[in-house]
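re: ur question from the group chat, yeah i did fold both. here u go
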Amino acid sequence: MTEREQTDADRTPGPPISAEPAASAHAASAEAPAGAPPVVPAASIEPPSEDVAATSAPPSLPGEHRGGFRREMTQPLPVAPPLLVHPDPVVDPQVHWIHPPPALPRSAGWALLFGVLALVLACFVGWGFPVGVLGLVLAVVALRRPWERREMAVWALGLSAASLVFSAGWLWWAHTQGALFA
């Protein structure tokens, strides 16, 4: 045995390594008494596969690979030089500044304002229903736009509808109290 095999054999617990581990394991299991655990053969070290290439150049910078084995496919790919977008740099295209896009119309906030105002008016008088109708229309418009805040539009719709119910109640009560339209 070579010196390396001797040191490996000294470190490996269990039976010594033989030339035919399968035959010795079979013979050891035949010699072992019944009920005893089977003897496991020692592990063997295989040579590296073909896709691992050995490097022999010494490292030139701290942190570089220090030799040994390295896989070729895991190294960083080289960066290609950038391509020219305009092949003729002499031609200078005329640059126009781009204006910012116009602000989109917002109606959810206005609908909520008119809904709250209509509800406050409807608690005291019945003639606040036009403000409730305006809040209701703006809330429906806000719900149809995808850029509007949906929660605000739903609250405006609910408050405007409640103000219309209160206004209708006030008008019905006023109608029952006297000849309003006679």
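okk and heres the other one u asked abt
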Amino acid sequence: MTSEDDQNMAESEENRPGGAVPDPDNPGWLCWPHIPPEKFAAQIGVLSFKPEGEGQARVRMQVEDRHMNPGGSIHGGAVMSFIDMALFAGGRCAGMAEGHYVTLEMSTRFLKRGSAGKPLDAVVRINRQTPGGLVFIAGHCEQDGEPCYDFHGTLKRVRDPRDKK
């Protein structure tokens, strides 16, 4: 592990998404290794993420054949589900305040076809957080360093419905 990886891990302790652990397959990255298989989020596979400087993070999914459409590119639903999850994991790694959030809106533009067998990275940046709990996030997804999707979304911090108070 490099000193940059050590620094990123130290930064990630403060902004670590709930349930995240160091990714054993990717030094310097975090992951959610045990999403229950009956949950929709498990369809994306293991999500890896790490901070990348002030207000920015990188989130990665491993694109498999099960994520593909009949035309041979990543299914739009898989892309948008990944981006939605990247807003949360990437937002938290980038410095989003701790809390329970919901997606208020999200927009995606499809710039280029994504393919199987290569990681898909979302580069996430926080544009603004408000005291009232709104977080405005934007970014793009890339494969092999080439942008293939771009996105923006708005998250809202809400009371966690699992809290019975």
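fwiw on the second one: The mean pLDDT is 89. The chain has one domain: 3-158. idk if thats what u expected
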